[in-house]
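Final report, results section. Input specification for complex C-07:
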Amino acid sequence: MTQTLTPRTTADTEPDAVRTAPRRPRRGGRAPWEEPPTVAGQAGKGLTLGGVLAVMLVPLWIVVVTSLSTQGAVNRAGGLVIWPTELTFEAYRVMLEDATVRTALLVSLGITAVGTLLSMAVSIMCAYGLSRSRSLGHRFLLALLVITMFVNGGLIPTFLVVTGLGGYGEWWSLILPGAVSVFNILILRSFYSSTSTDLIEAARIDGAGDWRILWSIVLPTSRAVTAVMALFYGVGYWNSFFNVMLYMPTDSEKWPLQYVLYTYVNRGNGLPGSVNAGFGTQFAQTAPLSLQMAVVVLTLVPLLIVYPFVQKHFRTGVLTGAIKG
Amino acid sequence: MTAPRTQRSGTGWRVRLRRDRSLLLMTLPAVLLLVVFNYVPLFGLVTAFQEYDPLIGVWYSEWAGLYQFERLFADPLFWGALTNTLYLSFVQLVLFFPIPIALALLLNSVLSTRVKNFIQSVVYLPHFFSWVLAITIFQQMLGGAGALNQFLRSNDLATWDVMTNPDTFALLVTAQVIWKEAGWGIIVFLAALAAINTDLYEAAAADGAGRWRRLWHITLPGLRGVIVLMLVLRLGNALTVGFEQLLIQRDAVGHDTADVLDTFSFYYGIATGDYSYGAAAGLFKSVISLLMIWGANKLAHAFGEDGLYRR
Amino acid sequence: MGIELNRRRFLGITASVAGIAAAEGLLTACGGGGGQRAVGANGEALKAALPDYVPSALLKPDIPSVAGGPDVLTDPGFLTYPSNRVATVSGVPGNGGRYSAVTPLWGTVPPADNQFYQAMNKALGVTLDMKPADGNNYATIVPTMTAAKKLPDWIQLPLWWGSSFNLGGLAGTQLADLTPYLAGDKVKKYPNLAALPTGAWRAGAWGDKLYGIPTSSTGFSIAGTTFYRRDIFEAKGITADQVKSAEDLMNLGKELTDPKAGVWAFDDVYRYIYTHFGAPLKWRVDNGKLVHVYETEEWLAAVDWCYRLAKSGYMHPDALAGDNANAGTRFYGGKTLIGGGGLGTWNLADHLSGTAANPNYRRGAFDVFAADGKSKPVVYMGEGARMHSFLNINLKPEQIEELLAVANYLAAPYGSVEYTLVNFGVEGVHHTVDNGVLRATEAGQKEVQATTYPFLASPGSIVQNLGADQVTKDYTAWQAANVKALTKPVFWSMNVSMPQAQSTADAAQQVEDTLKDCYHGKKTVDDVKAAVASWKSGGGDRLKQWMTENVLDKFGTGQ
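Structure output:
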């Protein structure tokens, strides 16, 4: 809170004092050793990236326009809307005015924060533990991990194990069963075993133990991959609702945001079978399609907010350089 | 094996345990979680050898020996699904796999940070679209009544049937995967690019290495570990190709074109209540996948790469 | 990559389980459960267990029901809501018990412990913990509950998912037998339940015992029909009466299709049209012998017609590409003018969606016709109720009685005091009355879901679209015009539990897949014939034998 009142000070005082290493110019500059760009190269690059952007942005446009369209506009288009005609914020209003959505937002934030922290801690430790070549049993443990990527017992057995441990209706059943992603561990491990080996050896000679090496050498030199993994896990927790369906399908006050939003997607869908619903039909006045698209947009927003924080770790070489300097 | 080696590991074992104690301790939480939530449920695999009835459970279901596997191997639909899987997997390996790498390199070479950040923030978004939405968008753009074909029609040109053509289905599926996942796929490579020490570039440039030589001698070797790892994992996953994506488009091109192993075991196993049959198909797939990842890893070693673990 | 993808994949599985089950509802419902132990069906022996039928005549409908054959009756139509409401239950039915209840919900979940729930609990005299679960994933949620033996006290289990849930196996192992409480005249203790038609109860029985409490029971039970855009037809001077045969319908395709304008005459129609060709729903008995639909010439004729339709250029390309999800919007947008669909779509919501796109929007349905234009038009009936609620087997007898009394309250007829509370909430809080039309308030829209309590027990179906009388009139008129065509299929309302091998053959996935490819124009009729031949040798013939020995010979046809 107080920080937001004085936003400038932290930004001004902190950064460059810590990072002592001389850095190459960023912000659009070209490194001193790089050749000036050729015209053809620039044009080709521009065209390719422009094409990529167009292909990505057009669908995004369609989604946003549809989410803002009235039911009439959607139905006239016979599906997704490409050219905006009648615009309305109705779909967003319906969603955001719901008290359940607000509770669910807190639940989602909680699960994502706790889950990501736990997953990261477990994965980083495991990845580092397996990254030192010739350590005892690392090949066996790796095999143990990799097997789980390809072999699983199926839905019902997993469900029975979790409920057998008392997980039915408990928060942890949304986090623990999927807390470890072997894929993520393998990537982390690949980074750990290829970077800063000389630094680690030096530290070991100085008498540093593995915990210390992990904390003060490996983690600081691999911030990019750490950020990416946190993104992967965070996105996984934020988006997940399959476990919700299994372990708390009927406890609506415990549902995370994605699951509640998902119920909006179903809203107004006809019931299967020949049930002529009565009173409730009066509620289904917002076009399901615009609601569905509003849900899509709403789920993209947090990512748009979070992504820049991940992105800032992608600057080539800055961090390794800093440690060495 | 040979006497000295046994002796060495015999004495070395305790030394190594003491040395690697904290490393082992670090892996413990992850291993525990995997054992509880992945290994214990493996008892479910026995359903492949049963006539499993979910209601009476694994304990009381009838044993069927290898009956489900006999059925499986005699089923032409299964072999069709396997062929489709391998074919789609191969096409995606050739056409999809290099793209995130190329895109990451291209993006990395953009000088303006603002442009770079903007492009990055856009290209990963389609990953978060569901397949239902992604394919609806494709249908509305390229489908028989889509924007493209309505344009062709209004100009009295021949229409272009791409969404329902079984012959080009593999290309369509790959194009969809590229559109949806390539942007997200670059993130790992960007992280790997960020881990390359800039001093190397500076030194190489000082030695007179040009842009392409630096790419070849510094950038690509810097990415090699990750690329090989991803390749090994992709090969291990060769029998897994877009379940939901194919499920949705199955009606568009016909089941014998679109069925892969996962959709096969879904339609002919789970959806019809024939759980044991589905489980048998799943187990077959798991075993082959493990063999493939083991083989891929061997191959990586043969080329002097680490793969999943160092030799 | 990594974990997210996996989760998405799982999601796909479940979503499509629901989708398939819903689309093929009628077929699976006929198949019944797939358990191994409770092999058999409910037939004549059940008669003693069925509750007596004591119709109630609380309110005279504006559009009265029309009777057809036995167990056939159109739904009554109402154009107003009575201001003078009668109570059918005296006092409160419950004794203060506390129960959990799970129903599927296709909609937004209401806040937990809201004013509506509180008002209901007060009126019912019990605390019902209402736990709506997502309808689209219901087919996944329920099997996990039964696997862990965690069923709530009271649960809605729709028949069309009978095989996913293994209802036949659950009956008597996890679901309570209600026969001792409701058989014969015992039901008279619960007059509103006694007013539910016998056919509806029959569909909730296994063996000769009663398990399910019918909800949304109807005497006009057909899964769907072929709809058309009445407003557009009329503007073009076409009347639906012109369509008397399959060729008439095909000819409309030429007249209505205009690809340049983005208009194609047809969406998918196979599902509700193949019986018009004289094919049975699934089985028929020829000279005492059981014949499967796949073995009939009539069915092949229907498949051939649908194949020609797919190749004619009169079908919307998205429909041919298997995109069912947007069929509704195509119809509203006038991009397709004829399509098959469930009867449940003919209501106020449909009217609102359609008129939002085009103020003249009006849905119509073709009268049932015979494909050759000469035979007697026939449409086969489904069960008298396709959704039932069940009680947990662990409940004590007095608890079951308490919940049946609650069910009696929930099943109070249209226009009663109880019906008003159950369906519209509290006046002034959840709804206001405006010129005889009940309008939901903000709180009503959030808290009173149309299906929350009615999925536990409800009176017989009525047609009522307050504020859109045209829809009520059109729909009831169509029902009345077609009531004579309703015919009981073989094994009507009989729940058959068959062993796994038969259940697999019954699903006939390979034939259904090839069939779908055929009516989308990708496989020929010969391909379908080949698939049928391999189905017969791979289990179809054994299925027929099993059905003959275990159902036909023992229980009869149920007609």
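The mean pLDDT of chain C is 86. Chain C touches chain B through 49 residues (CB under 8 Å). This concludes the modelling results for the funded period.
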